Amino acid sequence: HVQLVESGGGSVRAGTSLTLTCVTSGYTDDGHCMGWFRQVPGKQREKVALIGSDRATHYSQSVKGRLTISEDKAKDTVYLEMNNLKPEDTAMYYCAGCDSLGTFVYWGQGTQVTVS
C-alpha cells in the first residue's frame, strides 16, 4: 500500500526558507498527482500546491511566487520549497498522493512549520 512520510518542518523566523520533503512508497506507476496541504487548528485543510502526472504545477494564491513544488521520480520524493516565509504560513503541512482517478486519498502524518 502507498505510504507518505514528510520531514523538514521546524520553527523559523519570518523571511527565511524551509524545504519540506515527502518520501513515497508503494506506488506502482508514475501517473499520479501529488500535493501539499496545510491545516491550522480550527480551520479547514487548505490545498497549497500540487503537481500533476504531467508535472504541471498549481498553487494557491496565498503562496504563489513563494512556494515551489517539485518531484524527483527517481527518488520517489516530492519537495515543497518555501521561501520568504510569513507568520501566516504557520501550520501543519501534509503531503498527499492521488489514486488513479486523480483523487487525493493517501496522506502523510504531517510536519509542523512555525514562523515567527
Biggest sheet overview: 7 strands, mixed
What's the number of extended β-strand segments?
Answer: 11
Helix and strand string, N-terminal first? EEEEEEEEEEE
Summing up helix and strand content along with how strands pair, one would put the structural category as: mainly beta
Strand content: over 45%
Mean pLDDT, to the nearest integer, reads: 95
What can you see in these coordinates?
The protein is mainly beta and 116 residues long. The N and C termini lie far apart (37 Å). Helix content is 0%, strand content 52%. The chain contains no helices and 11 strands. A hairpin with a 5-residue loop joins strand 5 and strand 6. The model has no long low-confidence stretch (mean pLDDT 95). Strands 2, 4, 5, 6, 9, 10 and 11 form a 7-stranded mixed β-sheet that branches. The protein has a 4-stranded antiparallel β-sheet with strand order 1-3-8-7, with no helix packed on it.
Write the SSE topology:
Elements: E1 3-7, E2 10-12, E3 18-25, E4 34-39, E5 46-51, E6 57-59, E7 67-72, E8 77-82, E9 91-98, E10 104-107, E11 111-115
Parallel strand pairs: 2-11
Antiparallel strand pairs: 1-3, 3-8, 4-5, 4-9, 5-6, 7-8, 9-10, 9-11
